[in-house]
Amino acid sequence: MRIVVPLDMSETAAKAIGPAVDIARGLGDDLVLVTVNGSRLRADLDIQDAAFSEGVAIPDMIEAYLKSKAAEIEDVKVSTMSLPGEGAAESLVDHSAGADVRMIVMATHGRSGLDRWRMGSVTEKVVRHSEAPVLVIPTRDRD
Predict the structure, then answer these.
(1) What percent of the chain has pLDDT above 90?
(2) How many CA atoms lie within 13 Å of 72's alpha carbon, on the beta-carbon side?
(3) d(CA 2, CA 100)
């Protein structure tokens, strides 16, 4: 079985890796670190700036990011994957359907108000539509 961890190259999304590794170790599952390589990610100005300053193409930078995160994980079989698609939630749900996925472990950015309305909640859409169970790791600072 596999545990899927969606990453969008943010520190927030990467906070799901630790809990996913712990679960994978406990269950003897493989881990798959995935990124949806859609226009929203490619249009991110921080990612564009980083790719430009490093002199690499954005897809190559995404692949390097996934490989670097995978290299930090010990004692669990890890693979990486860049999924095509414009809708991150839809791509994740489609990928996880019937693909020997035990669960999806993902962090939530904790957006609210106008940002949530404007950007939508990928996590919420995955929770609503995924056939696989979804473990949501909250990352919002507690008051």
Answers:
(1) 45
(2) 10
(3) 6
CA distances from residue 137 to 14, 19, 34, 75, 101 in whole angstroms, order as listed: 10, 8, 16, 22, 18
Tokens at 106, concatenated? 């993902």
User: pLDDT (tens digit, 9 = 90+) per residue, 85-112?
Assistant: 878 889 999 988 877 999 999 988 655 5
Residue 8: strand, helix, or coil: coil
- CATH topology classification for 2-138: Rossmann fold (3.40.50)
The full DSSP string for 83-109 is: E--S-HHHHHHHHHTTSSEEEEEEEE-
pTM of the model: 0.85
